Amino acid sequence: MLINVSGHVDEAGTCTLIKDAAFPEPFVSGLQYNAPARGVWNIVHVGMLIPKSHQIYVCAANCLRGVVLTAAEMGTLDRFSTIAVQENNVLEGDMEELIIEGVSDILNKLPQKPPAVLIFTACIHYFMGCDLELVYTELRKRYPDVTFMDCYMDPIMRKSGLTPDEKMKRQLYSILQPMEINKKSINIIGNNIPTDESSELIRIIRENGYELKDITFCKTYDEYLNMAESCANISYLPVAIPGGDYLQDKLGQKHLHLPLCYGFDEITKNLNTLREYLGLPKKEYADEKSAALNALKEAKKVIGGSKISIDYTSVPRPCGLARLLVENGFNVDRLYADSFTKWDKTDFDWLVKNKPDIKVYATVHAKMGVLDRKCSEKSLAIGQKAAYFTGSEYFVNIVEGGGMYGFDGIARLAGLMKEAFTCPKDVRKLIQIKGWRCGCCL
Questions:
Q1: Which Pfam families does the annotation name (predicted)?
Q2: Residues in a beta bridge with 310
């Protein structure tokens, strides 16, 4: 699609009122724009969560640029290698040999063999019918002391089966092996950012004598492997569900999906699901609800009727957060989301009925690179993409929920909203940081 950028560009195809938006995909998929808001994590960041591991990417040189830059920005090039697929490899059909000998050459030159190697194959290997089973069998034979993990950089798979994020979050735990179950140990899985210690979720676990394990806590490879001994895995991000189900089948660990959400009834239900599993009585959480509502009231006094924009990278359920804010008197004006998940359907329907004039904007539509989309007045943005597209210096800089959970999470988010509306940020500087807060994994 060619666009004349010399004149006015209208919003057709990029924006719709929520009452007119088709669920779950309000926009037609086509040529895409990639906004320079880089806070979300990519496969390099996620793979680095495994301590002492080494990543090897096997693909064409053009595809390697992004992952190389990510490793360089993280300061982890010593744990990162590449194997470039060239035209002769395609023509001669020696893809298997390229991977086997390339990986062998890398490992033989490293000063010390890593305990785990994550090999990322790409689209070309599927196009060529590469025998990856043969590749991994040979590598495991050559290096019996190294654990090889099959990982994937395959954007061609984005529209079918597991998403790249879901697949990576599953593979992240795939090398864990069965251990004797410790009934006083529980994992939180699927997160890139540690959950706030003040959250009700963490307090339930710790105050009742359970050891909490999380890959974001792991400093050694053995600590990571010992996650296999826990009796249960808790996930609260949707992308972690396949990983939790996989570990339940493989290791016999109970999978409790307690979704990150913003409805008080659902939060209470999630917390009581955990309490029931631990043999604890149910709780109404009246004090915690009151504290969350008071925090929202305090934020409302500062923000008033100013417009609020929310993007899908900031929280897994943007409609759920929008509903919470609307119910508490805030003026939610925009949602930046190219599609919605099934988890957002109930809150989406509520917004259609109760706040039908909310604008839903695409983030990847080709027009978004040239569209005049700035807010002319002071507004609050929640998420980096919302800050970029609205041009607001007043934004809450979080991704994937920011580690906030439950009623405590709502209270903390309200505090961040109040702070953000008072203290402007350097948007250009902050939104360029890849893997926001990813330093926690190093």
A1: Oxidored_nitro (PF00148)
A2: 335, 382
The token duo for 112 is 């010390």
pTM of the predicted protein model: 0.94
Strands 307-311 and 54-59: unpaired
Q: For residue 341, give every residue at least 6 positions away whose Cβ sits within 8 Å of its Cβ, in sequence order, or none.
A: 24, 238, 316, 317
Chain center to CA of 412? 20
Q: What strand order describes the sheet that includes 54-59? A: 80-84, 54-59, 116-122, 147-153
At position 264, the amino acid (one-letter code) is F
Boundary (domain end) residue, out of 144, 171, 198: 171
pLDDT tens column, 349-408? 999 999 999 999 999 999 998 887 777 799 999 999 999 999 999 999 999 999 999 999
Domain count of the fold of the chain: 3
Whether the Cβ atoms of residue 213 and residue 230 lie closer than 8 Å to each other: yes
CB 121 within 8 A of CB 98: no
Q: How many residues does the chain have?
A: 442
State the amino acid at position 182 in one-letter form: N
Radius of gyration (C-alpha) of the chain in whole angstroms: 23
Amino acid, res. 419: E
Query: How many C-beta atoms lie closer than 10 Å to residue 28's C-beta?
Result: 9
User: Do 263 and 165 share a structural domain?
Assistant: no
Rounded CA separation 424/393 (Å): 5
Structure tokens that stand for 235 in this block? 């996930």
pLDDT tens sequence across 74-104: 999 999 999 999 988 888 888 999 999 999 9
What confidence category does residue 442 fall into, taking pLDDT thresholds of 50, 70 and 90?
Answer: low
Return the closest-CA partner of residue 139 out of 223, 46, 56, 232: 56
305 plus 412 within the same structural domain: yes
Q: Which of 348, 319, 342 is nearest to 238 (CA)?
A: 342
Return the CATH number at 153.
3.40.50.1980
**Residue after which a domain boundary falls, among 277, 292, 327:** 277
